[in-house]
Protein backbone atom coordinates (compact mmCIF):
# COMPACT_ATOMS: atom_id res chain seq x y z
CA UNK A 1 0.00 0.00 0.00
CA UNK A 2 1.41 3.37 -1.03
CA UNK A 3 -0.63 5.39 1.49
CA UNK A 4 0.35 9.07 1.25
CA UNK A 5 3.01 9.89 -1.34
CA UNK A 6 4.87 13.20 -1.36
CA UNK A 7 7.12 14.50 -4.10
CA UNK A 8 9.86 15.58 -4.11
CA UNK A 9 11.62 14.25 -1.00
CA UNK A 10 14.29 16.97 -1.06
CA UNK A 11 14.51 20.36 -2.75
CA UNK A 12 16.79 23.37 -2.59
CA UNK A 13 15.47 26.71 -3.83
CA UNK A 14 16.80 30.21 -4.11
CA UNK A 15 14.95 33.08 -2.46
CA UNK A 16 12.16 34.27 -4.72
CA UNK A 17 11.76 31.05 -6.69
CA UNK A 18 8.42 29.26 -6.82
CA UNK A 19 7.76 25.63 -6.07
CA UNK A 20 4.84 23.20 -5.83
CA UNK A 21 4.91 20.27 -3.45
CA UNK A 22 2.76 17.37 -4.57
CA UNK A 23 0.77 15.00 -2.38
CA UNK A 24 -1.40 12.05 -3.35
CA UNK A 25 -3.24 9.46 -1.28
CA UNK A 26 -4.77 6.16 -2.31
CA UNK A 27 -6.89 5.47 0.79
CA UNK A 28 -10.06 7.17 -0.45
CA UNK A 29 -9.79 9.76 2.32
CA UNK A 30 -11.95 12.86 2.22
CA UNK A 31 -9.68 15.17 4.21
CA UNK A 32 -6.12 16.23 3.46
CA UNK A 33 -3.64 18.45 5.28
CA UNK A 34 -0.33 20.24 4.89
CA UNK A 35 1.97 20.76 7.89
CA UNK A 36 5.43 22.18 8.38
CA UNK A 37 7.91 21.00 10.99
CA UNK A 38 10.72 23.29 12.08
CA UNK A 39 13.68 22.07 14.17
CA UNK A 40 12.76 21.34 17.77
CA UNK A 41 9.09 21.94 17.16
CA UNK A 42 5.97 19.99 16.53
CA UNK A 43 4.04 20.11 13.30
CA UNK A 44 2.03 23.22 12.48
CA UNK A 45 -0.96 23.17 10.17
CA UNK A 46 -0.59 25.30 7.04
CA UNK A 47 -3.77 24.51 5.12
CA UNK A 48 -6.31 21.75 5.06
CA UNK A 49 -9.05 20.44 2.82
CA UNK A 50 -11.97 18.90 4.67
CA UNK A 51 -13.38 17.49 1.45
CA UNK A 52 -12.89 17.71 -2.29
CA UNK A 53 -13.58 21.25 -3.47
CA UNK A 54 -12.88 22.99 -0.16
CA UNK A 55 -9.73 24.43 1.38
CA UNK A 56 -9.17 26.40 4.57
CA UNK A 57 -6.33 28.15 6.34
CA UNK A 58 -4.59 26.57 9.25
CA UNK A 59 -2.27 28.06 11.83
CA UNK A 60 0.50 29.33 9.51
CA UNK A 61 -0.91 29.97 5.99
CA UNK A 62 1.01 33.10 5.02
CA UNK A 63 3.23 32.64 1.97
CA UNK A 64 1.46 29.48 0.78
CA UNK A 65 -1.37 28.49 -1.51
CA UNK A 66 -3.03 25.12 -1.96
CA UNK A 67 -5.07 23.30 -4.54
CA UNK A 68 -7.28 20.28 -3.97
CA UNK A 69 -7.00 18.95 -7.50
CA UNK A 70 -9.31 15.97 -6.92
CA UNK A 71 -10.07 13.59 -4.09
CA UNK A 72 -6.61 12.03 -4.27
CA UNK A 73 -4.35 15.04 -4.71
CA UNK A 74 -3.59 18.12 -2.63
CA UNK A 75 -0.73 20.40 -3.65
CA UNK A 76 1.09 23.15 -1.74
CA UNK A 77 2.61 26.09 -3.61
CA UNK A 78 5.23 28.59 -2.54
CA UNK A 79 4.89 31.54 -4.91
CA UNK A 80 8.02 33.41 -3.81
CA UNK A 81 10.12 31.30 -1.48
CA UNK A 82 11.74 32.91 1.57
CA UNK A 83 14.46 31.54 3.90
CA UNK A 84 11.86 31.44 6.71
CA UNK A 85 10.07 28.72 4.74
CA UNK A 86 12.99 26.35 5.11
CA UNK A 87 11.37 23.39 6.82
CA UNK A 88 10.20 19.82 6.50
CA UNK A 89 6.73 19.65 4.97
CA UNK A 90 4.32 16.84 5.69
CA UNK A 91 1.13 15.96 3.89
CA UNK A 92 -1.51 13.91 5.67
CA UNK A 93 -4.94 12.50 4.95
CA UNK A 94 -7.83 11.07 6.92
CA UNK A 95 -11.43 10.02 6.72
CA UNK A 96 -13.78 12.79 7.72
CA UNK A 97 -14.45 12.98 11.45
CA UNK A 98 -12.60 14.27 14.46
CA UNK A 99 -11.72 10.82 15.74
CA UNK A 100 -10.13 9.64 12.53
CA UNK A 101 -6.35 9.25 12.64
CA UNK A 102 -4.29 11.13 10.11
CA UNK A 103 -1.93 9.17 7.88
CA UNK A 104 1.26 11.00 7.00
CA UNK A 105 3.60 11.02 4.06
CA UNK A 106 7.35 10.75 4.51
CA UNK A 107 7.89 14.50 4.27
CA UNK A 108 9.70 16.89 1.95
CA UNK A 109 12.85 18.59 3.20
CA UNK A 110 12.90 22.06 1.64
CA UNK A 111 15.82 24.48 1.94
CA UNK A 112 15.59 28.08 0.79
CA UNK A 113 18.92 29.81 0.26
CA UNK B 1 -7.02 29.03 20.66
CA UNK B 2 -5.89 25.49 21.24
CA UNK B 3 -2.50 24.81 22.83
CA UNK B 4 -0.55 21.67 23.65
CA UNK B 5 2.44 21.63 25.99
CA UNK B 6 4.98 18.87 26.50
CA UNK B 7 7.24 19.84 29.37
CA UNK B 8 9.86 17.11 28.96
CA UNK B 9 12.17 17.86 25.99
CA UNK B 10 14.15 14.64 26.51
CA UNK B 11 13.86 11.40 28.45
CA UNK B 12 16.04 8.34 28.68
CA UNK B 13 15.31 4.94 30.23
CA UNK B 14 16.70 1.43 30.17
CA UNK B 15 15.18 -1.28 28.04
CA UNK B 16 12.24 -3.07 29.72
CA UNK B 17 11.53 -0.15 32.06
CA UNK B 18 8.27 1.78 32.14
CA UNK B 19 8.27 5.43 31.11
CA UNK B 20 5.60 8.12 31.23
CA UNK B 21 5.53 11.13 28.91
CA UNK B 22 3.56 14.19 29.99
CA UNK B 23 1.21 16.38 28.00
CA UNK B 24 -1.15 19.18 28.97
CA UNK B 25 -3.53 20.97 26.68
CA UNK B 26 -6.00 23.79 26.58
CA UNK B 27 -9.14 24.16 24.52
CA UNK B 28 -12.54 25.73 24.86
CA UNK B 29 -14.13 23.06 22.66
CA UNK B 30 -16.32 20.48 24.34
CA UNK B 31 -15.78 17.86 21.65
CA UNK B 32 -12.17 17.03 20.93
CA UNK B 33 -9.74 14.17 20.51
CA UNK B 34 -6.23 13.57 21.78
CA UNK B 35 -3.47 11.67 20.03
CA UNK B 36 0.06 10.51 20.59
CA UNK B 37 2.23 10.25 17.48
CA UNK B 38 5.68 8.73 17.25
CA UNK B 39 8.39 10.03 14.91
CA UNK B 40 11.41 7.71 14.67
CA UNK B 41 14.64 8.82 12.98
CA UNK B 42 13.11 7.80 9.66
CA UNK B 43 10.95 10.91 10.08
CA UNK B 44 7.64 9.06 9.55
CA UNK B 45 4.73 10.14 11.75
CA UNK B 46 3.08 7.08 13.24
CA UNK B 47 -0.09 7.07 15.33
CA UNK B 48 0.49 5.43 18.71
CA UNK B 49 -2.82 5.89 20.48
CA UNK B 50 -5.91 8.11 20.52
CA UNK B 51 -8.48 9.15 23.09
CA UNK B 52 -11.95 10.60 22.65
CA UNK B 53 -12.57 13.35 25.21
CA UNK B 54 -16.11 12.17 25.89
CA UNK B 55 -14.86 8.72 26.96
CA UNK B 56 -13.86 8.34 30.58
CA UNK B 57 -12.06 5.06 30.04
CA UNK B 58 -8.37 5.44 29.28
CA UNK B 59 -7.25 4.11 25.90
CA UNK B 60 -4.77 1.23 25.69
CA UNK B 61 -2.88 -0.29 22.77
CA UNK B 62 -0.70 -3.23 23.77
CA UNK B 63 2.24 -1.74 25.73
CA UNK B 64 0.94 1.81 25.34
CA UNK B 65 -1.67 3.37 27.59
CA UNK B 66 -2.81 6.85 28.49
CA UNK B 67 -3.84 8.60 31.67
CA UNK B 68 -6.51 11.07 30.59
CA UNK B 69 -7.45 13.60 33.26
CA UNK B 70 -10.08 15.78 31.63
CA UNK B 71 -10.55 18.27 34.45
CA UNK B 72 -6.81 18.82 34.71
CA UNK B 73 -6.46 18.85 30.88
CA UNK B 74 -3.71 16.28 31.13
CA UNK B 75 -2.99 13.42 28.73
CA UNK B 76 0.10 11.37 29.59
CA UNK B 77 1.44 8.37 27.69
CA UNK B 78 2.78 5.31 29.51
CA UNK B 79 5.03 2.88 27.71
CA UNK B 80 5.46 -0.43 29.50
CA UNK B 81 8.28 -2.91 28.92
CA UNK B 82 10.07 -0.37 26.73
CA UNK B 83 11.94 -1.64 23.68
CA UNK B 84 14.84 -0.26 21.65
CA UNK B 85 12.40 0.35 18.80
CA UNK B 86 10.49 2.80 20.97
CA UNK B 87 13.33 5.29 20.59
CA UNK B 88 11.76 8.27 18.82
CA UNK B 89 10.27 11.72 19.17
CA UNK B 90 6.80 11.56 20.67
CA UNK B 91 4.24 14.23 19.93
CA UNK B 92 1.01 14.87 21.76
CA UNK B 93 -1.71 16.36 19.54
CA UNK B 94 -5.14 17.87 20.08
CA UNK B 95 -7.79 17.58 17.38
CA UNK B 96 -10.89 19.72 17.18
CA UNK B 97 -13.63 20.18 14.65
CA UNK B 98 -15.01 17.79 12.09
CA UNK B 99 -12.03 18.42 9.86
CA UNK B 100 -9.72 17.43 12.72
CA UNK B 101 -7.31 20.32 12.72
CA UNK B 102 -4.43 19.04 14.81
CA UNK B 103 -2.34 21.15 17.17
CA UNK B 104 0.91 19.48 18.18
CA UNK B 105 3.10 19.86 21.23
CA UNK B 106 6.83 20.49 20.93
CA UNK B 107 7.69 16.84 21.34
CA UNK B 108 9.65 14.65 23.78
CA UNK B 109 12.75 12.88 22.55
CA UNK B 110 12.71 9.40 24.13
CA UNK B 111 15.81 7.21 24.11
CA UNK B 112 15.67 3.58 25.17
CA UNK B 113 19.09 2.34 26.23
CA UNK B 114 20.16 -1.33 26.02
Question: How is this structure best described in words?
Answer:
The complex is a heterodimer of chains A (113) and B (114). The model of chain A has no long low-confidence stretch (mean pLDDT 93). Chain A has 113 residues and is mainly β. In chain A, β4 and β5 form a beta hairpin. Chain A has no helices and eleven strands. Chain A has strands spanning 4-7, 10-13, 19-25, 31-37, 43-49, 56-57, 64-68, 74-78, 87-94, 103-104, 108-112. The termini of chain A are far apart. Chain B has strands at 3-5, 10-14, 19-21, 24-26, 32-39, 46-52, 60-61, 64-69, 74-79, 88-96, 101-104, 108-113. Chain B is mainly beta and 114 residues long. Chain B is built from no helices and twelve strands. Chain B is globular and about 40 Å long. At the A-B interface, β4, β5 and β9 of A face β5, β6, β10 and β11 of B.
Determine the strand fraction of chain A and express it as a percent band.
Answer: over 45%
- How many helices of chain A? The count is 0
Low-confidence stretches of chain A: none
**Percent of residues in β-strands of chain B:** over 45%
User: Strand tally of chain A, please?
Assistant: 11
Helix content of chain A: under 10%
Order of helices and strands of chain B: EEEEEEEEEEEE
Question: What is the 3D shape of chain A?
Answer: globular
Total number of helices of chain B: 0
Q: Give the overall shape of chain B, derived from the CA principal axes.
A: globular
Instruction: Give the termini separation of chain A.
Output: 35 Å
Largest interface: A-B, 28 and 28 residues
| Overall number of strands of chain B | 12
List SSEs of chain A in N-to-C order: EEEEEEEEEEE
Model regions low in confidence, pLDDT < 50 over at least 5 residues of chain B: none
Structural class of chain B: mainly beta
Amino acid sequence: NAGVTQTPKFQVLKTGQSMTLQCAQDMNHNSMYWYRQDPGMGLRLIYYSASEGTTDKGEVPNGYNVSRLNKREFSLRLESAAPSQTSVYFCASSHRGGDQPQHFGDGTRLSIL
Amino acid sequence: AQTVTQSQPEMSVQEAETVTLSCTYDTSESNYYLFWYKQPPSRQMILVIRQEAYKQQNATENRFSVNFQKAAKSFSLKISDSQLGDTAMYFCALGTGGAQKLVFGQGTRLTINP
